[in-house]
Specification:
The protein is an alpha/beta fold. Helix content is 37%, strand content 22%. The strands form 2 sheets. An 8-stranded parallel barrel has the order 1-2-4-5-6-7-8-14, surrounded by 6 helices. A 5-stranded antiparallel beta sheet has the order 10-9-13-12-11.
């Protein structure tokens, strides 16, 4: 019987060894601070739009279409100094808009936009803030506190005209901000220009949760008149940027507004409704440019020739068709209150194919 007891002891020892033996270590993956949100698990496209505090039109449009979005971005925070001071835009209006969103569409996430526009683009202040660790920390602390106090889901950065010399500092700032925001279990998105060789698109995408690619302003106020987002330019931008930004993080940003250029002078940004009113006043109608696939019209006022180019339902349908094959995370429309009223069904569905 001794051999039987010995066999039992051996079996028990083997079982205990399997249970308590140290587990094989798994090598950690390369650090990527954006791993908090597994965007690949999102089944439906993300549909986002922007609300501003100025005037009533943006809020009215939000009220009419709140149920269409799963992300609303409020244009509420502005870098206001080289020392990292952030200015809030009309706190009372913010609270009113935020309260409405939380009631009207409880499923929608709400991000606060932080941009570097405050009485003009703050290019020099942005450069100096990004270069200062103390100023960066001040902005990060403000944003973290703001998100907690207002129970928001994330922050969306729109720092434009960032100088090439500041791009490395901008990457450092994004790392610092994203790490702190993720500690709050909230998200960071970043707006990037459509085609600027100085921007590290791939590096930014590794840091943040999502990247909004602004595929508009091919021509804008300080350039000559022309299509705001032509088909060929849209396709070229998408080919290049999808090689650098994973589809699971890519939000295709589209515009819905117009520019009115006076021959030999700068243009001015106007709403779609204002563009239609101008066309009616001067007996004109929108025409589709066969090359760019953008709509436009021309008129003469006080002896000066004007050219008005428009982003509308037609341009959104065109851009969505171009982007669909890349299966992006979602789409964003800039902005509530300036849009073509016919755009919404196309924005949230395949839209027309003509």
């Amino acid at each position: 019987m001794k051999w039987l007891w010995f066999a039992v002891i051996l079996v028990v020892a083997a079982i205990l060894l399997l249970i308590y033996a140290p587990k094989k270590a798994v090598a950690p993956e390369q650090e990527n601070v954006s791993q908090k949100t597994d965007q690949t698990k999102i089944a439906d496209p993300l549909f986002a739009s922007y609300v501003i505090n100025t005037g009533q039109a943006s809020f009215d449009s939000l009220k009419a279409h709140a149920g269409l979005f799963n992300l609303v971005i409020g244009d509420w925070l502005h870098l206001d100094s080289k020392d990292g001071l952030v200015r809030e835009d009309n706190q009372e209006k913010q609270k009113e808009i935020l309260g409405y969103i939380k009631t009207a569409n409880k499923q929608a996430k709400v991000f606060a936009m932080l941009n570097n526009y405050s009485r003009g683009w703050q290019i020099d202040n942005t450069k100096e803030m990004l270069a200062s660790s103390d100023a960066r920390a001040k902005v990060v602390a403000f944003v973290s506190k703001y998100l907690k106090e207002n129970n928001l889901d994330g922050v969306s950065l729109d720092f434009e005209q960032v100088p090439q010399i500041s791009q490395k500092d901008y990457g450092t700032f994004l790392l610092e901000l994203t790490k702190e925001v993720h500690l709050l279990n909230k998200e960071v998105s970043v707006h990037v220009p459509a085609d600027d060789a100085s921007w590290d698109y791939a590096g930014i995408a590794k840091i943040v949760d999502s990247v909004v690619l602004m595929i508009y302003d091919e021509h804008f106020s300080i350039t000559e008149s022309g299509a705001i987002a032509s088909l060929s330019w849209t396709e070229s931008v998408l080919r290049k940027r999808t090689a650098e930004i994973p589809a699971a993080k890519l939000i295709v940003g589209m515009g819905n507004y117009a520019y009115d250029w006076i021959e030999g002078a700068k243009g001015s940004s106007i709403t779609y409704s204002r563009a239609l009113a101008l066309a009616k006043e001067h007996g004109q109608r929108l025409e589709t440019d066969p090359v760019s696939q953008n709509n436009f019209f021309k008129y003469t006022e006080n002896g000066k020739q004007h050219a008005v180019w428009v982003l509308d339902e037609y341009s959104v349908a065109m851009q969505k068709r171009a982007a669909a094959k890349y299966a992006p995370l979602g789409y964003a429309l800039y902005r509530l209150g300036s849009e073509d009223p016919q755009v919404w069904q196309t924005f949230v569905s395949p839209g027309r194919t003509d």
